TrEMBL record:
Pfam families registered for this protein in UniProt: DUF1330
Every DUF1330 domain range: 2-93
Residue ranges of coiled coil: none
InterPro entries: Dimeric_a/b-barrel, DUF1330
Superkingdom to which the source organism belongs: Bacteria
SUPFAM superfamilies: Dimeric alpha+beta barrel
Protein name per its UniProtKB record: DUF1330 domain-containing protein
Length: 95
């Protein structure tokens, strides 16, 4: 089953987070993922407001998790740590 990688982010250092974004995209692509929502218009209804919301679709939970743990994504993530506050979850779809 396909899976969604859902991130809610508050960026605290635009320059460092930009480095993350430039590296994260190719890592996600390499693992069969693609963006279906990325920092677009949103409406916060409950919970903590994070102004950057990203959804990527992967072929499976395993592919999304493998991407997260990959050396390429971990290198990207090293730029996001300290440059953002974020939550990330992988959710299997019902498709």
């Amino acid at each position: 089953m396909p899976a969604l990688w859902i991130a809610h982010v508050s960026v605290t250092d635009e320059e460092a987070y930009g480095r993350y974004a430039r590296l994260a995209g190719p890592a996600i692509d390499k693992h069969g993922g693609y963006f279906i929502a990325r920092a677009a218009r949103y409406v916060q209804l409950e919970g903590k407001d994070r102004p950057r919301n990203v959804v990527a679709k992967f072929p499976s939970v395993e592919a999304a998790e493998a991407c997260y743990h990959s050396p390429e994504y971990q290198e990207a993530l090293s730029h996001a740590k300290g440059a953002s506050e974020r939550e990330l979850v992988i959710v299997e779809t019902t498709e």
